[in-house]
């Protein structure tokens, strides 16, 4: 490893040359390993040579740390072990240690080889010593500066290496707003090369979310929204004034989306059915997908409005963006605004202290699906209308306006025109939403879809429950066709799930697996349309008591039957129970209580 004097060899050589010219004697400088770093006169041809075998006097200086003056070279006691003791060419020698702190890093040798030089040195000995000490100090200062710079460069190299492994973006900026260095994560997140010397502007917006501050970062003619922290570095000035640790808002939105949203992979191929209505719907989906206009999807509950919305997104040029769905009926009115538009730290009492990103912001460059739009309160309808007109949002508690590029798909099972007449829905919003209307027919109007749908659901749940499935019998399909399906496809799926649970090891879905209500109501419809099998119809129409008149049930039994039917229709999930409670005209808490009775 090279000594520090070797690393600043050019500087040392200049000082040796200056000293030699002023003193008019030969000068050599060796490092602490007795390697000649610089030399003048008779030493100039001997630079870069090891002199450890002959530098006895220098070795003593390194050992004692004191300067040595040899007035009679070759004849003094210290010279006895020198290999040139008997043929020494020197008349006088002054050896001065070069210190850096407590460390001796080298020696300056002032060598007079003639009597004239010796007399001149002796005549002004103190002046020569002081000048020699000063040159030693100069060399020491340069060595210290080099070491500090070397340590700083090593530190910066370590820093560059370290920040290269950090996932967050890091940009180090000088006090002149010029980039000193940045890591690959920063370049990747911003999709921008930021070489050293690039001018950058960073301005805090005042918003704070998820423990981080929001900043607007401008590089050239491009502007970015980022979340992170801007730190003052200890130096505060020069090239290392500030450190920006950040994530692109897009990256944060992606993480938040992955944590809070369902992955949607459904497209037109997942819409099952052979009816003309279903085939027409598929064609319309492919047609409207290429547009950026707002779509209003209408249809009864359970017809698959979200599936249609997902298929539109997947077939559009926004499929690389996000599909963000929100059910306006499932979220309390007081929280719906914050879910849609987000909020910053301290926006309102009870809010997440770290703030939250809203659904519109998450859906930027993608699609937002507003399900049950008819349940949106009037004051929010006005805000939604403004978003549709201006394509901008503002988080709750913030004054920052955020531009968005979002396609809006809305859905409802309610009659919005009737709601307009009742002053429960804004007419101007309706026309903004109903640019492209899509109506999904109820399942009872497309009975051709029932066999393929039932087959699909049976295969799915048999695989899920690890059961063998072979077929659905024709009498069962006839019964399913005759049932009116008030809950539409969702109810059909729940019925088939029940049937697969009841299915035997033969893998056949027969009449024994049908839920009682479907068997009874489907049988009644079939009886009206067919006079055959009257005896079997009678058994279906009437109760299982075997009597020709229907069994009289208590009010309690009727209530329990209605609850079971509603849950069978809308599902045993929390959302299904909410819908069941709404259809029964009772609260969700009341429904849970009655289920437990």
Automatic annotation (TrEMBL):
Domain Sigma-54 factor interaction: 271-501
Region of interest: Disordered: 510-554
Residue ranges with Basic and acidic residues bias: 510-530, 539-554
InterPro entries (alphabetical): AAA+_ATPase (IPR003593), AAA_lid_NorR (IPR058031), Homeodomain-like_sf (IPR009057), HTH_Fis (IPR002197), P-loop_NTPase (IPR027417), Sigma_54_int (IPR002078), Sigma_54_int_dom_ATP-bd_1 (IPR025662), Sigma_54_int_dom_CS (IPR025944)
Record's keyword terms, sorted: ATP-binding, Nucleotide-binding, Transcription, Transcription regulation
The protein's name in its UniProt record: Sigma 54-interacting transcriptional regulator
Originating organism: Muricoprocola aceti
